[in-house]
Amino acid sequence: MRYVYVHWQHDMPEAPSDLWYEIADDDFQNRTIEFYADGSVGFAIRSAAFDGSEDVEVGGTRNSTEGFPDLAEINSDSQFKASEVAAADFERRWGEALASRFRMTTGLTIAIDGPAGAGKGTLARRLADHYRLNLLDTGLTYRAVAHKLLELGLPLDNVSAAETAARQVDLSNLDRTVLSAHAVGEAASKVAVIPTVRRILVEKQRAFAKAPPGAVLDGRDIGTVVCPDADIKLYVTASAEVRARRRLAEIESMGGSADFATILADIERRDERDMGRASSPLKPAADAHLLDTSEMAIEAAFLAAMAIVDGVLAKRNKA
Ligand code: DC
Predict the structure, then answer these.
(1) Which domains does the chain have, with CATH numbers?
(2) Model's pTM, two decimal places?
(3) How would you classify the pairing of strands 214-219 and 134-137?
(4) Is the N end or the C end of the chain the one with fewer CB atoms within 10 Å?
(5) CB atoms within 10 A of CB 61
């Protein structure tokens, strides 16, 4: 493993003032830290870049096919000055960068809303990983209530049993494997229309959002009801057909089979229930950034979201 410190000599306010690269054996960087002139820090972990399929930043430009350049090659570009450093030095700077990013994002809330299957869950996970924030998929809390009622064999409109189940929901103990079943999702959409269940769960979700170091929450009413003061609000959507196609591909990739028309009808029915209910219907907050992922890969959506978050962090850091 080689560690290289790359200093950007160009004097542009938007450009990183220093670049640090860790170069992996196969010539692809897998960790980058960037120090910006305004004191903010950017970093990336590119553990999946080894097959060359992902964009790799080389000397400040994007290059998806070439490996990391030689030091001589970087230095022949007058904008950069590269030198090899000791591993310990790199680790120290990496630690400082993480600590600095941690300080910058403390108290940050990112609210992500959108219909089922639009990609908001993946986006939320990527953002939480990147910015080191807590993550809550609020759909799981409604699923946990529905699962409890199904388990007890009670009807989904039994309000007092649903309220009791909602009070018992433990955010630190939500079992995604059990709760992700299709039937549980359908049932969740039904218990989610009960206003008192929503009140109880929203209170727990708000407490989660306030806990340090900050959080990414995804659901249907995060930007409108749970965290109306969120620093960043994203509304992620995609056409029902695209979402049905993705769901079918997911089922098939797990060795299952399903009928496209049935999935599409399910999605449309769920949209109607989530958008049409009286209590906190799914809709974009007035100040939400819209991300339509119909024609966009999740990586592109992540980069777009990251640009929005970085913009907010840069402003915060200047204030
Ligand atoms: O995102 P999901 O499929 O896990 O959500 C399951 C159901 O829970 C969804 O159909 C509507 C409801 N839900 C909600 O009403 N409000 C949220 N914030 C999250 C989910």
Answers:
(1) 2-103 (no CATH), 107-133+213-264+276-319 (3.40.50.300), 138-211 (no CATH)
(2) 0.73
(3) parallel
(4) C
(5) 8
What is the distance in A from the centroid of ligand 1 to the CA of 270? 9
Q: Which of 15-19, 21-25, 139-143 has the lowest mean pLDDT?
A: 21-25
In angstroms, the Cα distances linking 314 to 40, 54, 69, 228, 308 are 6, 26, 30, 21, 10
Contact residues for 195 (Cβ-Cβ < 8 A; gap 6+): 279
- Ligand 1 atom with minimal separation from the 179 CA: 4
296 pLDDT band (50/70/90 cuts)? confident
Q: Is 57 in the pocket of ligand 1 (CB under 6 A)?
A: no
Measured CA to CA, the distance from residue 8 to residue 11 in angstroms comes to 8
CA distance 32 to 127: 17
Q: Is 117 in the pocket of ligand 1 (CB under 6 A)?
A: no
Q: What tokens does 176 get?
A: 């995604």
Q: What is the pLDDT of residue 106?
A: 76
**pLDDT above 50 (res 1):** yes
